Amino acid sequence: MDEYAEVVKFTSGNSALNDQQLTQLRDQVWNTYVNNKLIEHEAEELGLTVTDAEIQSIISEGNSPILMQTPFRNEQTGRFDANVLKKFLTDYEGMKTKSEQMPAEYMDYYNSLYKFWMFIEKDTPSGKSCAKISSTAEQSDVRQQNHRQGRIRGTYQ
């Protein structure tokens, strides 16, 4: 809940959330939790996994809708840019050792941005699992339709 609250505060530019926002946030977190558990269960039943290589591919391609919501964009194209992300992560690691030399607001922003990225990175596998489940279900539907059509054609030939 706290992690998601930080993401919402970061993306909305607010430093705090009111009671109504917190209630909505709790509902969203619960729904997301239940949905992710269902996805995990279904993926496990189907033997589907998401590898680190797949996650890296999603990040390097930058086509995921959630990546488009991040501030790690190429200034010319406006699209997610893995190089901008890599630069941020490198800069962030360097800044952590010099945090006492940085203005507090600057460090707060970078810490929030880092937490935001960690949330995105953690959420990416469930999105990929969901896509794999959908793809598997679509392939199964097509196979079933082809099988039915084959039986129908065979009956009338």
A few lines on this structure:
With 157 residues, this protein is an all-alpha fold. It is built from six helices and no strands. Helix 5 (82-97) runs antiparallel to helix 6.
Task: Name the descriptors.
single chain; 157 residues; mainly alpha; globular
The number of E-state strands comes to 0
User: Radius of gyration from the CA trace?
Assistant: 21 Å
Q: Stretches where pLDDT falls below 50 for ≥5 residues? A: none
In helices, the fraction of residues equals: over 70%
- Estimate the global geometry from the Cα principal axes: globular
Distance between the termini: 61 Å
Q: Tell me the fraction of residues in β-strands, as a range.
A: under 5%
Order of helices and strands: HHHHHH
Largest sheet: none
By DSSP (H or I, 4+ residues per run), the number of helices equals: 6
Structural class: mainly alpha
Mean pLDDT: 79
Protein architecture, described:
This protein is mainly alpha-helical and 157 residues long. 78% of the residues lie in helices and 0% in strands. It has 6 helices and no strands. It has helices spanning 2-12, 19-46, 52-61, 65-68, 82-97, 104-156. The N and C termini lie far apart (61 Å). The model has no long low-confidence stretch (mean pLDDT 79).
Q: Helices and strands in order, then pairings?
A:
Elements (H helix, E strand, L loop, with lengths): L1 H11 L6 H28 L5 H10 L3 H4 L13 H16 L6 H53 L1
Helix pairs in contact: 1-6, 2-6, 5-6
